[in-house]
Amino acid sequence: MSNEAATATTAAEAAPAPDQIPHGLGASLPAADARAKTEGTFPYAADLWAEGLLWAAVLRSPHPHARITSIDTSHAREMPGVRAVVTHEDVPGSPLLGRGKADRPVFASEVVRHHGEPIAAVAADHPDTARLAAAAVIVEYEVLDPVTDPEQAFEAEPLHPDGNLIRHIPLRHGDPDAAGDLVVEGLYRIGRQDPAPIGAEAGLAVPRPDGGVELYLASTDPHTDRDRAAACYGLEPERVKVVVTGVPGATADREDQGFQLPLGLLALKTGCPVKLTATREESFLGHTHRHPTLLRYRHHADAEGKLVKVEAQILLDAGAYADTSSDALAAAVAFACGPYVVPNAFIEGWAVRTNNPPSGHVRGEGAMQVCAAYEAQMDKLAKKLGVDPAELRLRNALATGDVLPTGQTVTCPAPVAELLQAVRDYPLPALPKDTPEDEWLLPGGPEGAGEPGAVRRGVGYGIGMVHMLGAEGADEVSTATVKVHDGVATVLCAAVETGQGFTTLARQIVQETLGIDEVHVAPVDTDQPPAGAGCRGRHTWVSGGAVERAAKMVRTQLLQPLAHKFGMSTELLQITDGKITSYDGVLSTTVTEALDGKELWATAQCRPHPTEPLNDTGQGDAFVGMSFCAIRAVVDVDIELGSVRVVELALAQDVGRVLNPAQLEARIEAGVTQGVGIALTENLRSARGLIRHPDLTGYSLPTALDAPDIQIVKLVEERDVVAPFGAKAVSAVPVVTSPAAIASAVRAATGRPVNRLPIRPQAAVVTGQ
Question: How far apart are CA 276 and CA 259, in angstroms?
């Protein structure tokens, strides 16, 4: 690393002393960076520094839709301390960016299409100077009427050269004339949730002597970010390097590229390192959010409650640009019927552009929205039939060997009925006592609670499903290298640790395979081969699989001389607790002795079996694997105030195989708690395209006081034979399922339909009591 490079990059992650902790797969190995994060010494992107540092600021549009008539940067350029101002005219390469589709300008030039769209960026010698200079850029606008209703986008004038319709999927499965004895219908709305990372976006760009640039970012997909940056800068990819700094958690694509790319442009223009730390408002305005969704459903069932046909219309509001909306729509349409056997399904799905804030990848995208709707339909159907909601779900539960509405056969373990039975049979929590000292148990807390007599308890259910890895023909591949020298193993893999626990898993894999206690995971940068994005459980499956294969190749190198010496196959030797033994006990030595100062290494790839795009009737084997979850929610609702307290969430989930019990439990609990926010508080509100209160006061995240009692009732370890270690991703499906379960419980407590998320107080108020 050059002198000018950041001094606060992430150090190699090393395991604690082996005599203090367990190791290997199945053990609760703690994260190597846990102590540094606890003590506040872990270097995040906002901690970066370099000699001769300049500060950046971005000018963003105050309008959701307007025509730009002129941009005057002269006043900003003349301010003391300002070193550079860049606009669309200063982009030497491709002017467009985008994760799923490159349709979003680096800087708006003729039209702004959403509130907060970047127009110019400034580099100055002080952050306050940079912000003042950005504000001094004079932009003349011709304000246009924004299109904010996605239903109006079909008839509105095109907002983008590519039109307003991003994708339409008409899924056709079975007999269109099929009908049931009972029919229930519903209209549902899902609000806009934000990833709301506790650490806002930050980064540093450092120019290189060869005319290239190094970007120090909290990126979750460094190679893709590098390639897009190189295209923007008009450089070859090898002249742009992305170094991943400490990522302060990620529940979606971590970085806003409209924030990343100006950094490099300013560094190249000034010849100096340039740093930008986004404000919370900029973070809300810049990065993508969960798709607000409108859903219309009609369920047909026979007299016994068996589903006959599901009809649905799903409309995703993509905001101004496409991003990953096509992927989100595919998941929404494919899982529109949920983990139930549905012989006939007819789903229409659309993703459209509007002048609302941009939407993109957020954990469980597409699947979360439809789960809230189809589970509400199941509650309606149970009520109409007069049967227990859990029993109705059991009658229709999906299982391995059943066929999805996309025509894909479920080949992975799908213990849906087992999961639901586990949470249904789990003992219910005790009722709160009607005494003053227990007022904190009431909805609203001690200062906001109403009369105890107005509180109603409800029990509801939710069953969710998500797909793992990319879909519809995405080439999922990861590369890893394992090196062993002086009794220490090092893993090189560009899989970014975003809080999902990959670095811990990589250490456990090597410990298990090679019997070496001390394992380091090297920092990530784009000099390493690509590993792909850190989402949808990719790194547990694909990158973990690559590490395992590389470790096994090193294991063969280690054991081969011993096997040859004793005239046996390496398969007859095993490594346990740092010792190498043969099946007959003739050979017994330690790994350290066998290494004898040797340096061994191997590189391997993992690529899951291919998938295919959905065809023009929504049919195709689009998914590598699926994961399922069942949740029973218990809530207390004040039917006079409409306040809701989630008392308990009991969860059962199929996990394939538990690789790290403590880590797995933490991921599940975090996902469930995120779902509580989606159900009750989180809604990034906008009025005619303008984001209202883009801060953590206006956007209410659940706190520790809002977290319910979470009971992990059952973890089904039925290994998926096509996945490395047989493990499944665990964090997304609780996010998908818990909002639906909470809404179901509120319906049970109030008798109200509850057809919108987050649940508004007026939706839980019962009049005439």
Answer: 8
pLDDT (tens digit, 9 = 90+) per residue, 704-730? Answer: 888 899 999 999 999 988 888 889 889
Contact 481, 413 (CB under 8 A): no
β-bridge mates for residue 686, sequence order: 691
Give the CA distances from residue 346 to residues 169, 407, 760, in Å, rounded to whole numbers and listed in that order: 10, 12, 31
Full-model pTM: 0.94
Q: Compute CA 662 distance to the chain's CA centroid, rounded to the nearest angstrom.
A: 20
For residue 67, list its beta bridge partners.
111, 142
Dump strand ranges (E) for 472-517: 478-485, 488-493
Q: Are 648 and 709 in contact (CB under 8 A)?
A: yes
242 touches 222 (CB < 8 A) = yes
The neighbour count for residue 73, using CB atoms within 10 Å, is 23
* Ramachandran area for residue 533 (φ above 0: left; ψ -120 to 50: alpha; else beta): beta
User: What is the C-alpha separation between 65 and 88, in angstroms, rounded?
Assistant: 18
pLDDT (0 to 100) of residue 9:
40
Residue owning tokens 């586990």 = 422
Q: Which amino acid belongs to residue 27?
A: A
> Based on the number of CB atoms within 10 Å of its own CB, is 710 exposed (0-12), middle (13-18) or buried (19 or more)?
buried
- Give backbone dihedrals phi and psi of 2, rounded to 5 degrees, phi first: -75, 165
99-to-12, 214, 323, 469, 534 alpha-carbon distances in Å: 29, 20, 5, 16, 13
Structure token digits, residue 226: 């590098």
Q: Which of 200-204, 224-228, 457-461, 602-606 has the lowest mean pLDDT?
A: 200-204
Tell me the one-letter amino acid at 676.
V
Contact yes or no for 512/582 (Cβ under 8 A): no
Tokens 């011709």 sit on residue: 142
Q: Closest by alpha carbon to 366, among 290, 431, 478, 262? A: 290
Measured distance CA(378)–CA(462) in Å, rounded? 10
Partners of 89 in the beta sheet? none
Q: How far is C-alpha 679 from the chain's CA centre? A: 17
- CB-based contacts of 170: which residues, under 8 Å, 6+ apart? 347, 348, 349, 616, 617, 618
274, containing H or E segment: strand 274-277
Contacts of 538 (CB under 8 A, 6+ apart): 468, 469, 470, 476, 478, 495, 532
Give the helix ranges, DSSP H, for 482-636.
502-514, 538, 544-565, 591-595
Backbone angles phi, psi at 671, to 5 degrees: -65, -40
Q: Please give the pLDDT value at position 451.
A: 76
* Both tokens assigned to 200: 């806002």
Q: Token pair 């590098």 is at which residue?
A: 226
Q: What would the two tokens of residue 289 be?
A: 């959010």
What Cα–Cα distance (Å) separates residue 643 from each residue in 299, 459, 699?
A: 30, 16, 17
Count Cβ atoms within 10 A of the Cβ of residue 46 and give its class: 0-12 exposed, 13-18 middle, 19 or more buried. Answer: buried
Task: List, in order of start, the domains of the chain with CATH numbers.
Answer: 50-145+211-250+253-278 (3.90.1170.50), 293-472+612-763 (3.30.365.10), 478-606 (3.30.365.10)
DSSP string of 616-627?
Answer: TTS-S--EEEEE
Among candidate residues 551, 483, 482, the one with its CA nearest the CA of residue 514: 551
Quickly tell me which residue has 């690509």 as its tokens: 530
What lies within 8 Å, CB to CB, of 585 at 6+ separation is: none
pLDDT tens digits, residue range 41-96?
888 888 899 999 999 999 999 999 999 999 999 999 999 999 999 999 999 999 99
**Which of 394, 393, 413, 391 is CA-nearest to residue 402?**
413
Cα–Cα dist 109/112, whole Å: 8
The strand pairing partners of 348, in sequence order, are 170, 313
Q: How many CA atoms lie within 13 A of 274 on its CB side?
A: 30
* 296 burial type by CB count under 10 A (0-12 exposed, 13-18 middle, 19+ buried): middle
Handedness of CA 616, 617, 621, 627 (dihedral sign): positive
Strands 293-301 and 118-124: unpaired
